[in-house]
Amino acid sequence: MLNARGHESIPPTSHGFKYRLVYARDGRRVLGFDNERGKGDHMHLGSEERPYRFRGVTQLLEDFAVEVGKRRK
After folding, report:
1. For the chain, which residues make up each domain, given as ranges?
2. Among candidates 10, 56, 52, which has minimal Cα distance to 67?
3. Contact 15, 8 (CB under 8 A)
4. What average pLDDT does the structure give for the chain?
5. Which InterPro entries match (predicted)?
């Protein structure tokens, strides 16, 4: 899911996008990129959560595709 610009910023972000991208296998999340109030932009690698530096929608989709590719091998 990716909401277009114009969405109210999700603190602590200021870019105006709300997004959630998930790659799942056998009903379980393997990888996720999202932002939520209080946490901001971050990614999930299995059960680990790491900060993610949002640099635009195109880069977000490219980063997600690269990470999915690593996990599909």
Report:
1. 2-68
2. 52
3. no
4. 88
5. TumE-like
Integer-rounded Cα radius of gyration of the chain? 12
Residue count of the chain, please give it: 73
Strand boundaries in 1-73, DSSP class E: 2-3, 18-25, 28-36, 40-45, 48-51
- Who contacts 30 (Cβ-Cβ below 8 Å, separation ≥6)? 23, 24, 46, 71
**Is-contact 33 60, C-beta < 8 A?**
yes
Alpha carbon distance 6, 73 (integer Å): 37
Q: What's the token pair of residue 2?
A: 């990716």
**Residues in contact with 11: Cβ distance below 8 Å, sequence separation at least 6, in sequence order:** 37, 38, 40
